[in-house]
């Protein structure tokens, strides 16, 4: 149990910090009028709680509480009614709970607020921990929004820059974690990565071999965009059991650090068995934690394109047949709707190969729209649009493919 006076003090301090910050508006918006519980999930430090707090009208702020505060170590389910009491005493309109999944039984409180028609916002950085309770006790009562580090458009707003090759180069180097954009300290990205692996993944998942988990994380950062099989990864990383490799990869996906995308295949069974490609939630985070000193710029660009697609689409695959490859195909409503090829720079050596891969993907998947993205070239080749990545990123990829 926790004393209400201590709780009031923690709340006052946590809420003070917020007022001092200069904040930009995000592309994601919070549906304030909805009467469902609103859940914002995403990788750590990407701006989840700020998104909610900034969205609430200034004359009706919410009562914010972050459960990672060590002073809340003794908070238990029986303490939740104190939050309602403090909310009313302080004249707040709603309750906003950060990383609440650490308190067992939180979903019972969530449900009771919902039943009383009172507003609750929740943020979390672990997909499965949240979804377990959401899926059972709160089915149909919540709406979930996924948030990512800043997009290129948000980066421009934050840095007060204009769109173009020069500002895209800055984004390409710095990525989208708001605090990193402020401090530009690579150690921040290393500490963040390590903290997610050791504190979130290893502790929550009870992993005793933390070294193997970190090695896997570094391996994925160093091999963004390259296909690999679980067994090959196991042997490279000296992890004996393939099952362990698969579990660890799942945990890394749950923490929103990486997505492992499958190869396109009409057969689901083949799709599962084929090699996967990993993409990181923030390419600058991957670079800071990578062992690959050659700095593969082409794959990094591919990672940015992947993220831009991922903001709009959940199902993204790569395409490969016996003699050609295409970086991404995008699924929407059970249909592949688009194919995207990414190439740093088109020249007489690679042009035919890149076009062939894109056309093969379009033909085989029956996707109706394809594009070839480059660092700075723009053209129309053989009926295929060629565009610089920065320009393509100025609109949501859903708009580009004409779906909503
Ligand atoms: N819209 C924004 N404009 C400017 N800075 C922002 C914005 N959103 C977040 N930040 C910065 O990023 C930091 C992290 O934001 P926030 O605490 O909301 O992230 P979070 O995803 O809730 O983190 P955690 O998962 O650790 O709880 C903030 O301290 C703030 O400095």
Q: If you had to describe this structure to a student in words, what would you say it looks like?
A:
- This protein is 45% helix and 18% strand.
- It is of the alpha/beta class and 404 residues long.
- It folds into three domains: 4-147, Rossmann fold, CATH 3.40.50; 185-295, Arc Repressor Mutant, subunit A; 301-404, 3-Layer(aba) Sandwich (Trna Endonuclease, Chain: A, domain 1), CATH 3.40.1350.10.
- The strands form three sheets. A six-stranded mixed sheet has the order 9-10-11-12-14-13.
- Helix 9 (186-204) crosses helix 10.
- The longest helix is centred in the middle third of the chain and has 19 residues, at 186-204.
- The chain binds adenosine-5'-triphosphate.
- Adenosine-5'-triphosphate (ATP) binds at residues 21, 23-24, 26, 44-50, 98-99, 123, 125, 178-179.
- This is ATP-binding protein.
- Pfam families: AAA_14, DUF4143.
Rounded Rg: 22 Å
Averaged pLDDT, please?
Answer: 92
- Report the oligomer: single chain
Helix content: 40-55%
DSSP E strands, number: 14
User: What small ligands are held by the chains?
Assistant: adenosine-5'-triphosphate
- Main β-sheet, in a few words? 6 strands, mixed
- Poorly predicted regions are none
Which structural class matches the secondary elements? alpha/beta
